[in-house]
Amino acid sequence: MSTSQRPLYGVLLVLCAGLLLASHDGVSKYLTQIYPLIMVIWLRYLVQTVVMVFLFFPKMRWVILHTRRPWLQLVRAISLLSISLLFIGGLRYIPLAEATAVMFLAPLIVTVLSALVLHEKVSTGQWWAVSIGFLGVIFIVRPGGELFTPAILLPFTASFCFAIYQLITRRLASTDHAVTSNFLSGLFGTLALTLLLPGEYTLAVPALDIMFMLLLGVLAMTAHMLLTMALKYSSAATLAPFSYGQIIFAGIVGCFAFAQIPDALAILGVAIISCSGLAVAYLQHHQQAEE
């Protein structure tokens, strides 16, 4: 049986990646409540970059730096760094599940940008799904609610950066190796944050927290590798619904680690965003199949 005929493997890999990413966000939330944001994210990028050098440089050598679209790689790296700063910064104020759900607006924003910027065909059903998905945010961030604060703009802006990141990654996939894209983004993030590090760090860190900081890079890199591997076993359209499992994992991590339980309206908003994203994925797959 070929790898493309084992969709269950792909589903399991996506679910594992979602669990790792939710765990990564939970550890980030814990650390940024104690240590400077720049320091935490810098260590995450540094560890990821160093681990990738040990894993891939012996085989790829300097090819790992080869790109045919350096400017797109730069924009991708800036987008990824912006996501990290905005989303993890927002986790200091926003519960994990709600922040993750807002981040999952990205597929809906990708649909809008695909139509407005790339002039791709978007069906009426997709437009309805996008509109309903944005209404889901209102249930999470409602006037008078606990999350109706300027802090919610951090994960919301991060979702726009994530949409740009996804569009650029899609374009780079046809010309550059996935390892190259991930390595260059990690390297850029490490160098950029190193410039911001003076005055944004402390050496008074217990051994346990040092372990958590080192774990961040490993969790992020492993999750992205699992997502890449999943596409070898199944199509992106098949795997898309299961990527929303990350919201459930985020809710579990938030509940047990931070005693943060979404209220009924927030859960409704999460469900609306998730269903809208699934509808967009289904309609896009159906449209591509017809073409």
Task: For this entry, give a set of tags.
291 residues, mainly alpha, 12 helices, 75% helix, EmrE-like, transmembrane helix, EamA_dom
Q: How would you characterize this protein structure?
A:
With 291 residues, the protein is mainly α. The chain has one domain (3-290). It is 75% helix and 0% strand. It contains 12 helices and no strands. α2 (37-60) packs antiparallel against α8, α3 (70-90) packs across α8 and α4 (96-103) crosses α7 (153-172). The longest helix is centred in the last third of the chain and has 27 residues, at 264-290. The radius of gyration is 19 Å and the shape is globular. The mean pLDDT is 88.
Oligomer: single chain
Distance between the termini: 28 Å
Q: Give the helices and strands as they follow along the chain.
A: HHHHHHHHHHHH
Number of helices: 12
Low-confidence sequence ranges: none
In total, the number of strands is: 0
Query: Using only CA atoms, what is the Rg?
Result: 19 Å
Helicity range: over 70%
The portion of residues forming beta strands comes to under 5%
The total domain count is 1
**Mean of residue pLDDT?**
88
Shape: globular
Instruction: Specify the biggest β-sheet.
Output: none
- SS content category: mainly alpha
Task: Provide a compact summary of the structure.
This protein is mainly alpha-helical and 291 residues long. It has helices at residues 7-32, 37-60, 70-90, 96-103, 106-116, 124-140, 153-172, 178-196, 207-230, 236-243, 245-258, 264-290. It has one domain (3-290).
